Amino acid sequence: MIPRILQRRSSWPSSLLTGLIGWNGIAIITPLALGYTGELGVLFLAGSLAALAQVLILRLAFFGLRMDRSPVAAGVWGGISGALLILVEQVWFDIVAQHTLIALAAGIFVGVFVGGFLAYFYQDDREIESQAAASGVAVDCVDYGRDAHWLDPFAYGAVCYLVAFLPTRIELAICAATVGSIVGVIAAGVSHFVLSKWNNAAWTILVATAGGALVGLVSGLFFRNYQQLLWLPPLAVGGLGGMLTFAVTSIVGRKLGLQEHHAHQAPPD
To answer: What is the pTM of this model?
Structure first.
């Protein structure tokens, strides 16, 4: 069960987790995509420091920068702050200094998304809370519905990729779980924003699973330099991981969608 403070996506702990997941995901995936098989600890340290610093800055300046009014503007500020943090980190981390342009591109990319999601989560939570208030529900008792499960897809993806990759080395396990967690978010986005248009009907699970296999094939390319540690070719294990992730996420999405539908159909107390 997710703690209530984390069900509220615009809370400080949720914002910090958003930053940590985004920055560390990109800090691992970007080098991995370029064939990196070196030490992972320094990447996590650089990503975590950037995440904590960016979330702190953006949250403290949130209303002053009018991020509460526009996710697009928030994304711009996120990109700017992400670039500035990379320029600072190149002084401390040799791997960033040696690949400044790549690190800058990655920092801007993840910064845009972190800033945009902070604003989106804020606006969406306020809308849910205002609707609840109109029904006489106190803020502390608000039911955020399927949005309260926003962290679940990270776990689904990580577990599915670990099952697909069957890693025998810790570094491969970390990379597989990291890539899987990001694929899980993609799968959740597809379920929430696309499949929901058909009320997450049963047939959408098959469509999602097939689409997940394609996404997984692409993710398999990230592991081309780990071929000797894989039980199948990189594209095959990636495809399997993506397929499992999208299948599980779409099944859960259908379950949550049905629960939400029945809740809306239920007569008021």
So the answer is: 0.88
